[in-house]
Design a protein that fits this description.
Blueprint: E1 2-5, E2 8-11, H1 18-23, H2 28-40, E3 46-50, E4 60-64, H3 65-78, E5 86-89, H4 96-108, E6 111-114, E7 133-136, H5 138-143, E8 153-156, H6 163-172, E9 179-186, E10 191-197, E11 205-208, E12 212-216, E13 221-226, E14 232-242, E15 247-253, E16 258-260, E17 263-265, H7 267-274, E18 282-289, E19 293-301, H8 306-315, E20 326-330, H9 343-350
Parallel strand pairs: 1-6, 5-6, 5-7, 7-8, 8-9, 19-20
Antiparallel strand pairs: 1-2, 3-4, 9-10, 10-11, 11-15, 12-13, 13-14, 14-15, 16-17, 18-19
């Protein structure tokens, strides 16, 4: 098994040997990776992981290594990966997504290229090494869109993919046979349990992986049952439309719906509408309001003036009720330990009164 970092190559007989090899490095990232290998190969049956905190307070959950191996095997079989493939790990090592890329490589006994997580991780890759499979975030996909055409299979997850970004991704790989997938999952389900193939133009449905079944509660929120996780059930706050073929279409989060004077506003629909005209990171959320209870606001990561984005809103085709009523800009968003936007801390930094649903 070989591990590549920049122009460095480390080769060992067994994956656990990387603990000693990497611990001698002076590179902080490789030392962090060494500790992750050590944690995986210790005698503990469980593995503690912190949730992202993107939809609430971060918390520590305990996963069994046995279930993590099963999850890795499910990904391997779903995407037809082999021991002779080369995987790329470019996600935070503290996130379940980053950890599971490492576990997949260990289970496969495949070569692994590692790159520090950043907007465009492909700039640091070693030359003459072909990547067969990787997992990235939508933000990384947006910032490295031209690089994606050289990787046969890419899974994208951790946040919604806007319609504008999806169009750009498909144009980038249009003349190739490369496959792009949007994933659905969470820390509790040990990453993805459903995927949507972006190359199937117009198909918005997430297909269940083998052994996964779906239902909904009285709020139309997704309930998951996972055979490979000992038939465990997981209740989400994600509003979905479940189809008869055991797939579902994601419609938004129940706890993010904005109730503005009785009008229900789905932030994701507004974000999709704006994604073609706003290039920076942004999100739609609620702010407390005396007259309407809540109003929709636009928050943009930008040094441009608020008036610039207010003009964009005025020239966009919004009806009176769904148009964001205020704009806030911030030079840099607060992020979680997994590099996701921390909306709560970002709003606190702006002094925004957060509306309750």
């Amino acid at each position: 098994m070989r591990l590549f970092f920049k122009q460095h190559v480390f080769e060992v007989e067994e994956a656990k040997d990387f603990i000693q090899v990497l611990s001698k490095s002076k590179e902080p990232y490789l030392l962090e990776l060494s500790k992750l290998f050590e944690k995986w190969f210790d005698h503990e049956l469980n593995f503690e992981v912190q949730t992202s905190g993107s939809t609430g307070s971060p918390k520590i959950i305990r996963l069994t290594k046995s279930n993590m191996r099963k999850s890795a095997s499910l990904t391997i079989s779903t995407f037809g990966l082999h021991s002779f493939d080369t995987l790329l790990l470019c996600l935070p090592l503290s996130s379940i997504a980053g950890i599971m890329m490492l576990v997949r490589s260990i289970v496969l006994n495949s070569d692994l290229v590692v790159s520090r997580p950043k907007a465009n991780p492909f700039n640091d890759l070693p030359k003459d090494i072909d990547i067969d499979f990787t997992a990235i975030t939508p933000y990384q996909a947006k910032k490295s869109i031209e690089k994606l055409k050289v990787i046969p299979k890419i899974i994208i997850g951790g946040a919604p993919i806007s319609e504008h970004l999806e169009e750009g991704l498909l144009n980038a790989v249009d003349e190739t046979k490369n496959e792009l997938f949007q994933t659905y999952g969470m820390t509790e389900t040990i990453t993805h349990i459903a995927v949507r193939k972006l190359n199937h133009h117009g198909d918005k449905s997430f297909k269940a992986l083998e052994g996964i079944s779906f239902s909904t509660d009285e709020r139309s929120c997704l309930r998951i049952k996972a055979k490979h996780l000992r038939n465990s059930s997981f209740q989400t706050n994600d509003i979905v439309q479940v189809n008869i073929d055991n797939s579902f279409e994601y419609l938004g989060r129940y706890d993010e719906i904005i109730n503005s004077g009785g009008v229900k506003i789905n932030p994701q629909k507004v974000e999709n509408k704006l994604s073609s005209v706003i290039n920076e990171r942004f999100f739609i959320t609620a702010e407390e309001n005396d007259d309407f209870g809540q109003i929709a606001i636009l928050v943009v990561e930008s040094k441009k003036s608020k008036s610039y984005y207010e003009e964009l809103l005025n020239t966009n085709d919004f009806d009176l009720y769904h148009k964001p009523k205020k704009v806030y800009t911030l030079a840099e968003f607060k992020t979680s330990h997994t590099n996701k936007i921390d909306k709560i801390q970002t709003l606190k930094k702006l002094g925004v009164q957060i509306g309750e649903n």
